[in-house]
Specification:
Chorismate_mutase-related, EC 5.4.99.5, Chorismate_II_sf, mainly alpha, CM_bact, chorismate mutase
């Protein structure tokens, strides 16, 4: 390999190591987020509150879109990502509500 190729490969390895670290941090952050939303789900179930809060979800999506725009991240991508998370949170809250014997799971605290 030429010197340029060696330098490019070294940079590639460096960038990939950073990406791997970021991926690990994302997983840990998501785990912490879901730990918190699980606690919210239990609190809602105990007090027979609906699993979903559409008004909060709208506020969170708008907030995340602004943050994404400020960070030069595509706001549409950020919204899709948050919608995926919200869907999972609501699914968890509905399951927790059922475990607590609450009526039909109605409407997660994203």
């Amino acid at each position: 390999m030429s010197g340029n190729t060696d330098a490019a490969m070294a940079k590639l390895l460096e960038l990939r190591a950073s990406i791997d670290n970021i991926d690990a941090a994302l997983v840990h952050m998501l785990a912490e987020r879901f730990r918190c939303t699980k606690a919210v789900g239990h609190l809602k179930a105990v007090h027979d509150l609906p699993p979903a809060d559409p008004a909060r979800e709208e506020r969170q999506i708008a907030r995340l879109r602004r943050l994404a725009d400020d960070a030069n991240l595509d706001p549409d991508f950020a919204e899709k990502f948050l919608n995926f998370i919200i869907h999972e949170v609501i699914r968890h809250h509905e399951a927790i509500a059922e475990e607590h014997g609450n009526g039909a799971a109605r409407n997660g605290d994203a």
